[in-house]
Amino acid sequence: MRSKLEWRAARVIAIETPAEDVRAVTFAVDGLRSLFDPGSHTNIKVTIGGSPAIRTYTVLPSEPGTLKIAVKLHPNSRGGSAFIWTLKPGDTTEVTEPENRFELSWRASHYLLVAGGIGITPIYGMAHALAARGQSIRLIYGARSREQMAFAEELRDLLGDRLQTFAQAEGQAFDLAAEFERLPPEGEAYLCGPHGMLEAARNLWRASGRPMSRLRFEVFGDSGRFAEQAFTVAVPHRGRSVEVRADQTMLDALIEAGIDMIYDCRRGECGLCAVNVIETSAPIDHRDVFFSDEERHEDVKMCACVSRAVGGCVTIDTGYRRDTATSGQPASMATA
After folding, report:
1. Domain extents for the chain?
2. What is the model's pLDDT at position 77?
3. 218: which of 167, 206, 212, 265 is 20 to 30 A away, CA to CA?
């Protein structure tokens, strides 16, 4: 369960291509209440395979009354990016008021910003906000090639030598351990990128002895070890067996099947949608950043919003009991 989303009518007013395979779309939004903080995201109603769905994207700095997103067309996409790439000026949909779970603290002596690929989207807004306030910043930005670095030239103009870019095609890679070592004790790091990068960062940060509260990160969806495959999820306490399509999350499939779920972020960060794994006939592709390496290796829990089985069947217990939730205990706190 989650709080009610505030939906607004939105109309496409501009389309840009800031990098190879990246589409930026600007919407005029009816009744948008105010400007939003860097790191905020919006939900967008999309159509996938003829059926309605919801996808979440970071919002970029834009003019009042508008929302702007940048979306990479990914070959393993569940369909959201493909839909965004079909949009053209004049098309309409609905979006939610932006909300922020990846906020700047505004307390640090120095900010290290790290972006991997399309993970530049929240980092881009942070760089603009920090530079406008004269904060001490360093931004390191890596991608497969320079052609895939969205907003790189604009960020170079903004930050000068405070920006350093790394292209894998040129044999370049940034050194997170060295970056963390040079960070002042009161400094903070903000990262967005693929799962592997964030896991490495979290382990290095913990090993350095720095407070975990000074490391903030956000993962984007295409972060699994395997391409999406259809699989089956069995829920014995509900007597149900649900098919999960390749272009669908397990969370969405369970909700569509009428199975009550607790959830919030839909990005594998908050852990509210975690389910207990009873047994599985196939490997589990863990795509969250909530569980530790050890917990993911044990395969006893999985985040339904991002993780999935690699084919086969996974048997779960959601931990949610309607009879418990309606007997005086709040639904969001119900347990098995």
Report:
1. 7-96, 111-219, 231-323
2. 61
3. 167
Of 3-7, 95-99, 303-307, 327-331, least confident by mean pLDDT is 327-331
3-class secondary structure for the chain?
CCCCCCEEEEEEEEEEEEECCEEEEEEEECCCCCCCCCCCEEEEEEEECCEEEEEEEECECCCCCEEEEEEECCCCCCCHHHHHCCCCCCCEEEEECCECCCCCCCCCCCEEEEEEHHHHHHHHHHHHHHHHCCCCEEEEEEECCHHHCCCHHHHHHHHHHHEEEEEHHHCCCCCHHHHHHHCCCCCEEEEEECHHHHHHHHHHHHHHCCCHHHEEEEECCCCCCCCCCCEEEEEHHHCEEEEECCCCCHHHHHHHCCCCCCCCCCCCCCCCCEEEEEEECCCEECCCCCCCHHHHHHCCEEECCCCEECCCEEEEECCCCHHHHCCCCCHHHCCC
Class of domain 111-219: alpha beta
Give the residue, 19 or 195, on which the prediction is more confident.
19
* pLDDT 10s digits, 129-176: 999 999 999 999 999 999 999 999 999 999 999 999 999 999 999 999
From 3.10.20.30, 1.10.10.10, 3.50.80.10, 3.40.50.300, which CATH number describes the 231-323 domain? Answer: 3.10.20.30
pLDDT of residue 225: 53
